[in-house]
Design brief:
Layout: E1 15-18, E2 25-28, E3 36-38, E4 44-47, E5 55-58, E6 75-78, E7 81-95, E8 98-109, E9 113-120, E10 123-129, E11 135-137, E12 144-147, E13 150-169, E14 178-186, E15 189-196, E16 199-208, H1 210-217, H2 238-265, E17 269-279, E18 288-289, E19 293-295, E20 300-308, E21 313-323, E22 329-343, E23 346-351, E24 354-362, E25 365-374, E26 381-390, H3 395-424
Helix pairs in contact: 2-3
Length: 458
């Protein structure tokens, strides 16, 4: 948090100096740790290691339209330690003549040294220098680096130039100086390498929300809203995806056990069987009723199966299941049709000679069926049989339950995959169909970079 009152232990101290270029007073916050310091009045880059503050470079200021979001000199707490913002750098890459820039902040604590914050389009990373080298594997695509047991995939490589500097830096910073930076991601972390000549330095960044930055430094207002999906931005759906598939697996086991249990205890009892013929050469054949059959036990389903000898024909049967005791009727109709033949593609067939339907929640009692058949006139006699079974396990019920579980799991998984698609659409490995897709909102891959490799972080 922003310090108020006496400085707590470990907070940076300052030293007052004057710029040899313009005479303006400024403060040196990182003291002997600073290698270069930039005058915020005339924008001279000074050699902080030289007692005379030799001017190393002067550049034209270009910060008014793109000021630091965290003012220099602001103090805040990062990972339990007090840091002061001592430097600010803007880095830029050019793609097809269009510049894309991001911000980098130098933080200093006299006991812990330097650490860094980077920001692009509202996306922040808390970054520090690696103390040991990662293992690089260029024999896979994309290449990877391994560090502390974690594998990071190459995301992109770009040439980044320093376009503006302000404050203090633990290396000799120069406006216009460029280097090759490569990022390897394993969200929420990113490992970056920066190559300048023969020198390569590695750093690690961890994604941090703008709200946490604002809270840590006690900044007023709200941070800029993040735009698009950033290279190491953690997916907000990854935990949900894991959770919902774990729940899906648990419910799947429960459904299987339920199906086994229902199948084991189901009566699956045939309660009616009858065979009939329908003469299509006679017009206006009257409906008929079957013999009465008894349904015993508890309320359960009744499966009605119609089997026919149709061949390039169809038959439609209007059914009514009628309770003899109460007169209550359930009306429904079933069509059975079967067609087949040959054409230029070979043999074909459509439909079938059998149809089944489940009537749910039929109470026990005495029942009969009213049947009225229909078909085309003049096709002879169509024979059909009607079979009724009581308390039959219905696979379709469990299929519907499975689908109900699968839909939300699939939807969240699709959203998670789409999040990753948007992430990698901004990489060197963007799918061909997303090369012109600006749906991410980042417009162009912007590397985190590594401003931190040109000097020691103490």
């Amino acid at each position: 948090m922003n310090a108020s009152g006496p400085n707590p232990p470990g907070t940076p101290q300052v030293k007052a100096l004057n710029c040899p270029g313009c005479g303006a007073a400024f403060t040196l916050r990182s003291l002997s740790q600073a290698v270069t310091v930039v005058c915020d009045h005339c924008h001279s880059i000074l050699d902080a290691q030289d007692p005379r503050l030799t001017i190393l470079q002067k550049f034209k200021a270009a910060v008014d339209e793109d000021p630091p979001l965290i003012p220099l000199g602001r103090r805040g707490t990062i990972r339990g330690a007090a840091y002061e913002v001592v430097g600010f750098e803007r880095r830029t890459i050019h793609v097809d003549g269009v510049p894309y820039s991001w911000h980098e902040y130098v933080l200093f604590n006299p006991y812990k040294g330097f650490r860094y914050l980077t920001e692009y389009n509202g996306h922040w990373n808390d970054t520090s220098i690696l103390r040991s080298l990662p293992t690089v594997n260029n024999d896979v695509s994309p290449p990877t680096v391994s560090y502390l047991g974690e594998t990071y995939k190459h995301f992109q490589t770009a040439k980044a130039a320093t376009s503006f500097v302000l404050g203090e830096f633990p290396w000799q910073v120069r406006v216009g100086e460029s280097s090759d930076v490569s990022d390897y991601v394993s969200p929420p972390r990113v490992i970056s390498s920066e190559r300048t000549g023969k020198e390569i330095t590695w750093s690690m960044g961890e994604y941090i929300s703008g709200r946490d930055i604002w809270k840590a430094f006690g900044l007023e207002g709200n941070p800029p809203e993040p735009v698009g999906v950033y290279e190491n931005q953690p997916s907000p759906l990854s935990a949900e995806t894991t959770t919902i598939w774990a729940a899906f697996a648990g419910f799947m086991v429960l459904l299987v056990l339920m199906f086994i249990g229902f199948s084991s205890f189901a009566r699956n009892e045939r309660v009616f069987q009858g065979t009939y013929g329908f003469n299509t050469n006679t017009r206006g054949e009257a409906p008929f009723v079957t013999d009465v059959f008894e349904l015993k036990g508890h309320t359960s389903d009744l499966e009605l199966t119609t089997s026919t000898n149709v061949d390039n024909k169809w038959i439609y049967l209007s059914y009514a299941l009628i309770n003899q005791d109460t007169g209550q009727a359930q009306d429904f109709g079933r069509e059975v049709s079967y067609y087949h033949g040959y054409d230029e593609d070979g043999s074909w067939s459509e439909g079938g000679r059998e149809d089944s339907v489940a009537i749910p929640s039929v109470p026990p009692g005495n029942y009969y069926l009213r049947v009225e058949p229909e078909s085309d006139f003049g096709h002879g006699t169509i024979y059909y049989s009607i079979s009724a079974k009581r308390d039959v396990p219905q696979v379709s019920f469990f299929g519907i339950a499975l689908l109900a579980l699968l839909v939300p799991a699939g939807l969240i998984t699709w959203r998670s995959m789409n999040f990753e698609h948007l992430r990698w659409a901004e990489s060197d490995y963007a799918p061909a169909d997303s090369s012109d897709d600006d749906s991410n909102g980042l417009d162009r891959p912007i590397t985190l970079g590594n401003m931190f490799g040109k000097g020691s972080d103490s």
